[in-house]
Amino acid sequence: MATHALIDNFTGDPDELYTLIAEEINKRELPGYTFSWYEEFEAMGWIGAKGIKARALKISYRGQDDLVLALQTGRIFNVTFRRLHDLDPAERQHKGPIFDLYNDVYDEVVRRSVKTALRRHLEARQAPIPKELDFAGIFLTPEKAEKTATAA
Length: 152
Fold this sequence. Notes:
The protein is of the alpha+beta class. The chain contains four helices and five strands; from the N terminus they run E-H-E-E-E-E-H-H-H. The protein has helices at about 15-25, 90-95, 95-125, 140-150; strands spanning about 1-10, 35-45, 50-60, 65-75, 75-85.
């Protein structure tokens, strides 16, 4: 599942945001998290053709990988994070309930860390947090986006 934030009229720095995300995760002192880089690119429709390229932060923990991609597009700062790799359900069942608990903690740590880092990034650049974007709802999951669209 992917979640997204688009901040209008804001010029952000993806590398600065990635550093803040790693800080937020590391300050929780949870062992086993690793960080690396992953190249994202826009497919151009034919084999091997690549358009826009961007570096994403890859966060890994116990066989699961999440990607955080921050990209400046004009005066819009886009942030998205999504699961890149998850364990097979049969393998997950074999791991047991403690593994499930750690998985839930992992998901929540990444979600909170990205949100907190984005808030810190906005504050560091003295950018107001848009009123229509409260941090409880800034990241729209596909389900929330669908509900918001049908309510409008």
